[in-house]
Amino acid sequence: MIDFGFDKLMLIGGVALVVLGPERLPRVARTVGHLLGKAQRYVSDVKAEVNRSIELEELQKMKTQFQTAVNDVENTVRQEVDSAHQAIHSTWSDLSVEGGSSEAAMAASAPPPAYSHPGKNWRLKRGATPLWYKQRQGVRRHTQSGAARVARFRPPRRAS
């Protein structure tokens, strides 16, 4: 790059002052400064765009590396699960062959039943709570309508 020192800039300014004259020099200097600013902004925009494209390429490379790593792990896990499933299935079938009777073999060859929720009833749990505990905790034991609840807490009538 061209190296301009202070002495060279002073020489260029003196020549410009002589050639252009003192009337037009400020306007020309302002125009040159404006053009240099535009050039610097353009160069910085180009640099930023190049940096963005480089970062995008790096991110895409990282994405592909991450994706291949994920696929490798997924394949490894899938192979391990399949091998474990095969081992369990072969053990299960060996146990069914050793069972002897055809009914036992049929029962042993069938896969184990799927898990089902025991279906416990929360009302039974509440029913097993002692009465004294319910009273202390303020749990209602009987259903009461709104009118009955109001009548319960209404002051008694006076006989006239």
TrEMBL record:
Main location: membrane
InterPro entries assigned: TatA/B/E, TatB
Subcellular location: Cell membrane; Membrane
Claim: Methyltransferase is one of the keywords in the record: no
Keyword Transmembrane: yes
Topology with respect to the bilayer: Single-pass membrane protein
GO CC annotations on file: TAT protein transport complex
Keywords: Cell inner membrane, Cell membrane, Membrane, Protein transport, Translocation, Transmembrane, Transmembrane helix, Transport
Record GO biological process: protein transport by the Tat complex
Single GO molecular function: protein transmembrane transporter activity
Region described as Disordered: spans on this chain: 136-160
Quaternary assembly: The Tat system comprises two distinct complexes: a TatABC complex, containing multiple copies of TatA, TatB and TatC subunits, and a separate TatA complex, containing only TatA subunits. Substrates initially bind to the TatABC complex, which probably triggers association of the separate TatA complex to form the active translocon.
UniProt-listed NCBIfam families: tatB (TIGR01410)
Annotated family: Belongs to the TatB family.
Biological function: Part of the twin-arginine translocation (Tat) system that transports large folded proteins containing a characteristic twin-arginine motif in their signal peptide across membranes. Together with TatC, TatB is part of a receptor directly interacting with Tat signal peptides. TatB may form an oligomeric binding site that transiently accommodates folded Tat precursor proteins before their translocation.
Protein name, UniProt field: Sec-independent protein translocase protein TatB
